[in-house]
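Table S2 (text version). Query chain:
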Amino acid sequence: MKPAGKVFLVGAGPGNPDLLTLRAARLLLGASLVVHDGLVDPAILSMARPTARMISVAKSRSRHTMKQEEINALLVREALAGNDVVRLKGGDPFIFGRGGEEAQACRVAGVEVEVVPGISSALGAAAAAQIPLTHRDHASIVSFVAGQCKGLSEQDWSGLAGKGRTLVIFMGLATAAQITEKLIADGLAPDVPVAVIENATRSDMRVLRSSLAGLSNVVESERVQSPALIVIGHVTAENDNTIRALALEAIQ
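Corresponding structure-token output:
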């Protein structure tokens, strides 16, 4: 009987292939089976060897290629069949990547799993836009939240943003209006500066700036698409000239 394989939960980083870790690149180059998210850059997928099986488990707000339970089952099934599986996930597997659920499913089934961290899209996007998430003059606390979390209106976000704090919102495009309403209701000033970073670290990156009150208008008028992050706080006004130049260059 063929021995069980191993599952590698690999972070693909924020988009640019140059930001892969060496461990991630080596695993991808040697992989015979790659199970990947839909937002992983094609240039990263092309690094896999030509004979590798590529299985997309792309997800969007309105359509899932596979349900999460089916993805978990796929990883376990392939590993138990004796295949090493590279599960390639955007950003870092354990930051809004459901990597914890997949690792747990593997452990329960007796499948060995290794987690290979990636540069979180929050860190990559902020660095590419030259927005310091922390700054001695502006912020000593950073919070990461999911904009599509269940029961968004019931969540208590008070204290997550404001003076001395930076708030980074993942998957918040579709709920930008609700996010704005919620944060203002929880006490955040409408004029707090905001940056929306689309396609971070890629050649088509855009950085769009607004106030909190104008967030949903910017998302709608500029037709911002995923992947995109929303950064809220006074750090987004740091290095204004660089941010404006990046945004202008991206849309020309």
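Notes on Table S2: The first helix runs from residue 22 to 30. The first strand starts at residue 6 and ends at 11.
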